[in-house]
Fold this sequence. Notes:
This protein is an alpha+beta fold. The protein is about 40% helix and about 15% strand. Helix 3 packs across helix 4.
Amino acid sequence: xxxxxxxxxxAELNQLGLRLTPQRxxxxxxxxxxxxxxxxxxxxLYQCLQEKETKKKISLSTIYRSLKLMTHLGLLRELELxxxxxxxxxxxxxxxxxxxxxxxxxxxxxxxxxxxVLKIGIKTTNKEGFHLLDCQLTIHGVxxxxxxxxxxxxxxxxxxxxxxLS
Length: 166
C-alpha cells in the first residue's frame, strides 16, 4: 500500500496519460486534512467543497469520477458502511491501516486494527503475484444499546441510538 502526496499522485496519473488537475489536487487535500476516523461520501465531499473558499467550484460528477479514479489507484478506500451509500477515506499504510465495525441500526462506525487481516491479505496477494492496494474487513452487527432496547422488534422507528451521537 502506498502513502500518497501530490507528487506521487501526479507521477502515477502521468503514467496513465492523465493530469493532476486542480480539482483532483483539491480532493486529495480534503482527504489528507480529514480528522482521524472521518469518512466522506461523494455528497459530503461536494458539500464540504461548496462551503470552502475554492476559486473553482467542483461539480458532483467530477467528484464521482475523481473518487472512482483515486480508489482504482489505491489512493482512497471505498467503504460500504450501513448508510446505503459509499464512503471514502485515505488508504493509509501500516501502522495506520484499520478495519470497521458498523452497527446496522444506528450506523455507528468503530475503527479497529487487526494485523492478522492485513497479513493474510499480503500473504495471499504475494502468493498469487498481485500487488496489494487495499485489504479491509467490515463487520456489520448490532450495538449493545440497540439490543438493550429490544432489537429487532422492540425499537420504535424514530429511536436514535445514543452511540450514533457520540
